[in-house]
Design brief:
Length: about 270
């Protein structure tokens, strides 16, 4: 898993850099930068082909929310806040498990209703790619946006809306970790419903765990409850930070345990 974490960090930095370059400067910066856009779920879902979207749904079903920790630019931006919190503010290990927030379902419902009826501007406030896309208009006024998206007719107004959204997300991440992903992001909420049933899940080995609490205190998604050896795999974004800090190597990405064939009442 240490190798997976290294690969995850590399891909996250690569896609964040490519996304910023592609949106703020344009595709002429490097043709390969277009991959950052084509790898996103929403642009793929709105295109004539939805191959990338189907790919990420399959990845989520097998391995969980890898999308959120690798190609999502706002996810990577929140990780920079985590780095700043840890390295500059010297705040380490002060997260704790929190139950899922119902507000995420309300945001997803509003988002799902708003898009078909033309309230596209809402995506500039809650959907990661369009938040970054709106902010990029401050440096790239010619950037094409969907009509109605964050004051599409005014690049400065749209850019300021997107920039304000990014600043709010970053400050929130600095204080509370990845709560934007677990409370607001409609893409994250949708993937959560698949990831909680993923074939491979993060598990705590009860025979190795010594309840040192390091994983729970360092989980930016607040998805680990050590006292019950529980990991909320729907909320987990597969950053693998928990494995890095575990001194007993008690956390692993494992195939989901099958339910026992014998009913609970009959087992001895």
């Amino acid at each position: 898993m240490k190798d997976l974490r290294t690969i995850r960090i590399f891909l996250s930095a690569l896609f964040l850099t490519a996304s910023v370059a592609y949106l703020c400067i344009g595709s002429e910066v490097n043709p390969m930068a277009q991959i950052s856009m084509r790898a996103q779920i929403i642009p793929s879902a709105l295109a004539a082909t939805v191959g990338i979207t189907l790919f990420w749904l399959a990845v989520t079903f097998f391995f969980g929310r890898m999308y959120c920790s690798t190609v999502c630019p706002v996810g990577a931006l929140q990780d920079t806040a985590a780095w700043f919190r840890r390295r500059i503010l010297k705040r380490k290990g002060d997260f704790s498990y929190k139950p899922r927030a119902n507000v995420r379902l309300y945001v997803l419902a509003v988002y799902a209703i708003a898009l078909p009826i033309g309230l596209i501007w809402l995506s500039a406030l809650v959907e990661p790619w369009n938040i970054l896309k709106s902010a990029a208009r401050l440096t790239n006024p010619e950037l094409r946006v969907t009509p109605g998206l964050a004051f599409a007719g005014n690049a400065v107004a749209g850019g300021l809306v997107g920039l304000l959204s990014l600043i709010c997300v970053w400050i929130w991440a600095l204080a509370k970790g990845r709560r934007f992903c677990s409370h607001i992001c409609p893409i994250g909420t949708f993937l959560e419903s698949i990831a909680e049933h993923s074939l491979y899940q993060i598990r705590i080995d009860p025979d190795k765990c010594t309840s040192c609490m390091a994983c729970e205190r360092n989980c930016k998604s607040e998805a680990i409850k050590v006292s019950e050896r529980f990991v909320d795999n729907g909320r987990c974004v597969r950053c693998f930070d928990c494995h890095k800090v575990c001194p007993e190597d008690a956390i692993r990405l494992r195939r989901r345990f099958k339910r026992p064939a014998t009913p609970e009442a009959l087992r001895t």
